[in-house]
Amino acid sequence: MRATFTAFAAKLAGEGFAFLHSRIHSVGPVLTAVRDGLVVGAIGPMETMPAPISKARMPQHFGILPEYRGLGLGRLLWRAAMHWGSADGAD
Predict the structure, then answer these.
(1) 56 within 8 A of 45, measured Cβ to Cβ
(2) Closest to 65 measured CA to CA, from 20, 5, 2, 1
(3) 20-38 tens-digit pLDDT
(4) How far apart are CA 40 and CA 89, in angstroms?
(5) What total number of domains does the chain contain?
(6) Whether pLDDT at 53 is above 80
């Protein structure tokens, strides 16, 4: 799936995924949604960090390719991210 993240990031470059892709090896994990053998959604980086208001900061990038929206993939990614954060000590 890593190979298809490049194409995904290019399609959502305007939403910050090109930047995330350029730093993918230096940031925390990125959770992905996969359909038809392709990365079609992502949220991340998944890092628990101090924030001014709470004990954790939300992932900076979250997106689903337009042709895969409305299938519940965003909801699944968001829930997976919240589960990951909770398990890692986030509020």
Answers:
(1) no
(2) 5
(3) 888 878 887 889 999 999 9
(4) 28
(5) 1
(6) no
> What DSSP letter does each residue of 60-84 carry, written as one string?
SEEEE-GGGTTSSHHHHHHHHHHHH
Residue 81, domain extent: 2-87
Q: Which two tokens stand for residue 77?
A: 């990614």
Q: How far apart are CA 36 and CA 14, in angstroms?
A: 23
For 79-88, the pLDDT digits (tens) are 999 888 777 6
Q: Per the confidence metrics, is the pTM higher than 0.85?
A: no
Residue 85's CB is within 10 A of a number of other CB atoms, namely 19
For residue 2, what are its two tokens? 């890593």
Judge whether 4 and 37 are in contact, CB under 8 Å. Answer: yes
Six-digit token string for 1: 């799936």
Closest CA to 44 of 36, 53, 33: 33
